[in-house]
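The material for today's practical consists of a large collection of protein records. A record pairs a protein's sequence with a compact description of its fold. Instead of coordinates, the fold is spelled out as a row of discrete tokens. We will come back to this pairing of sequence and fold again and again. Here is such a record, shown just as it appears in the course material.
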Amino acid sequence: MKTRHYIIITISLLFSLSYGCRKIELGEDIKALDVTVRVAYDTSKGNFSLPIEGINIKLENLWNGKINQIKTNQNGLAEFGNISAGVYNIMATLTIPKEDFQNYTGQFSEDDVTLNASMNSVTLNNQTNAILDLQMKLGRIGGLVLKQIYYAGSDTRNGASFRDQFIEIYNNSNEVIYADSLYIAQVWGTNTANPDLSKGFYFTSGPMIGQFNWSKSIGMPAGINASEDYFYPKSLYRIPGNGTDYPIQPGESIIIAQTAVNHKAPYSNSTGGSIEIKDPSLTVDLSHADFEVYLAPYLASPLASDIDNPAVPDLIMLAYSGKDWLLDNPGRDGYIIFKTDKDIPSTFQKYPDPAQLAITQNTTLYYQIPLSYAIDAVEIQPNAPTSRVPKRLYSEYDAGFTFCPAGSYSSQSVIRKTSKIVSGRRILIDTNNSTNDFDYLEKAEPKAFK
């Protein structure tokens, strides 16, 4: 899982100061000052109980270059004595170890997090208030994450088989994020549990042993890291919208359904027949999904179960595999959500997978998408260890994998665990390791939590 953290600290002075370099009159104005900097956090976007002790406060006198700096105490106060009147830059810095940052916010960071703030050209003299109230405001923490993946489907006789599959995407941040133009991809790779490493198109060592070595693909240019820096989706869809059409509020999610109908009740298929369900308790109602995948217009012989719910927006198709948006029931899949402002068909090249020895009119070509675009990624594997396939997501994006313990057609889903609740908003675990971050539901349920 790849999550980017956007930390923006702004600083506001809650008293009246005059700005700019101006000459200070002799007399009272030249006396030494006692200056107190008082630090607090804006909690309007969540009270994360970030530390107020140990914040380094620096006062830099722009007239003589002298720097005074001390750290805040347990009350968030930095008390400076014997400060000369003058014009100052005020800077605040706090470095939080990555482990502590995760404990405070529930968000994973690959490195220690440094928060910085500054206010420039502040005039300090005996006519200004000597208590400076600095308010640190957090910008976006976290982002979109894959929350629930219902790939297993339900019983083929009594349930809905594969027809009720869905994916849930969650806003794990403290700000509104728009789903417009978000891409969701299934990553292509070998599904062979024990590939023959003597063939020249597999990695023969390292963390991706047995997985495709995309540098061996026909037409792949030399001098690039074809596997390490890119992924190759077998299916690729984009959420529609003009930028602000589909907001996801903090702590809310969207559901993308394979078919947005109530799978608990009978419904008519595309040929006028009826799809019955024997045990409604095994499946889900997706009639109120936020989006659905409707592939019938693109196929010569679509599945009869692939029907369109006109009340639910359709995803925009860029690449598909099979006769519907089929999530691999055994669990041999990798999922990536990403954004780019580039036009994918006109910008990115397509290549055959490395196992192809020649390109014909029937050869499937896969877009080459930079992994740097990834917002989040999750790897799914079969429940049986002997059936597990070579890993297709590097540890930078998902160091582990997750699975439904009961396997295919079990009604189970994998779901991201809750880390903590801040101001009523759930923050989900995101350590870039699905083995750690995910649990499962005995029966999939849109918008549920674990």
